[in-house]
Specification:
7-stranded mixed β-sheet; single chain; Rossmann fold; 13 helices; binds S-adenosylmethionine; DNA polymerase, domain 1; 7 strands; 308 residues; alpha/beta
Length: 308
């Protein structure tokens, strides 16, 4: 397997809030290349437990290979949506014959750089590939199928809701007209629709005109925001007393759900927000790693109470 790079975002800020020491239980809901997980393992060895999730089996394999270096830590990995985190934690606890309440839970949302850099996955307008965009290729509908099936109104809603795309109506119209003679199949088919819809002089000079559309379609294809608030609340209830959950969100729709989940839990006396306002990367990190620029980190601590 070739060694690919995804630089973990806001590592120092995350490790500063997580109460990790030898023997602790850490949960990574979004393993990716396991950059954060490797550091968590370093801190919980010897005797710690790392439970990891990724809904992309390729990423899970990559994470597993990297975590072989994790030393004296019990590593349990699951090919699953982190929405099932409480179920797997219970199952792992039964198999291990011990309680498993998390001292740290990390959710680093969205795609990995590895996804964006692989033309075969269809996530990027920068390279030609099949218009797929599914993170879990074992199920669901590829982007091309969604865009060749949905009504103009549905496509407009997706672009508006998940991409804040001002040209949503026009782009949706072009997609629906073009697919009558030539269904969308490749990434360039979608890029061409966007370029045909947005007049050159009206384009935002700072980003590629297809950026918002690709983001919005990806979020819709993967159902990334569906029931996200409930999933974060459920995960928070798996924390041990003193445990911390931290979530990194990369766009406003995601961050809204994270904020609501944390505010909702913080209304209960046993949870408190670590910071009222989201924390971003340092200027130095934003310069070094452009992917970190839009990151917003929110975190929540369980102060006392029983685990359910
Ligand atoms: C931003 S990357 C994580 C990068 C990771 N923290 C690292 O250091 O390499 C997000 C990863 O989580 C996975 N992912 C995103 N949403 C998920 C979900 N709901 N359930 C499980 N995995 C998810 C993606 O497939 C991707 O591999």
């Amino acid at each position: 397997m070739t060694e690919l790079r995804h630089e973990p975002v806001m590592m120092d800020e995350l490790m500063a809030v997580f109460p990790l020491e030898a023997g602790a239980v850490a949960v990574d809901g979004t393993l990716g290349m396991a950059g954060h997980s490797l550091e968590m393992c370093r801190r919980i060895a010897p005797g710690g437990v790392l439970i990891g999730f990724d809904w992309d089996s390729c990423m899970l394999d990559r994470a597993a290979a990297r975590l072989e270096e994790s030393g004296d830590v019990e590593v349990r990995l699951h090919h699953s949506d982190f929405r099932a985190l409480p179920i797997f934690l219970k199952q792992d606890a039964e198999e291990m014959g011990r309680e498993l309440n998390a001292d740290a839970i990390l959710l680093d949302l969205g795609v990995s750089s590895i996804h964006l850099d692989d033309p075969e996955r269809g996530f990027s307008f920068m390279s030609e590939g099949p218009l797929d965009m599914r993170m879990d290729r074992s199920k669901g509908e590829p982007a091309a199928a969604l865009l060749n099936r949905a009504s103009a109104g549905e496509i407009e809603q997706i672009l508006w809701d998940h991409g804040d795309e001002r040209w949503a109506k026009k782009i949706a119209h072009v997609i629906v007209e073009r697919r009558k003679s030539q269904p969308l199949r490749k990434t360039s088919d979608l890029t061409d629709c966007v370029l045909a819809a947005i007049p050159a002089k009206m384009r935002d000079k700072r980003i590629h005109p297809a950026t918002r559309t690709f983001q919005a379609v990806r979020i819709a294809v993967n159902g990334e925001i569906d029931e996200l608030q409930a999933a974060i609340e459920d995960a928070g209830r798996c924390l041990a007393p003193g445990g911390v959950m931290a979530v990194l969100a990369y766009h406003s729709g995601e961050d809204r759900q994270v904020k609501r989940a944390m505010r909702s839990l913080a209304k209960e006396s046993e949870f408190e927000e670590v910071n009222r306002k989201p924390v971003g990367p340092t200027e130095e990190e934003a310069r070094r790693n452009p992917r970190s620029r839009s990151a917003k980190m929110r975190s929540l601590r369980r102060v006392k109470g029983d685990q359910g």
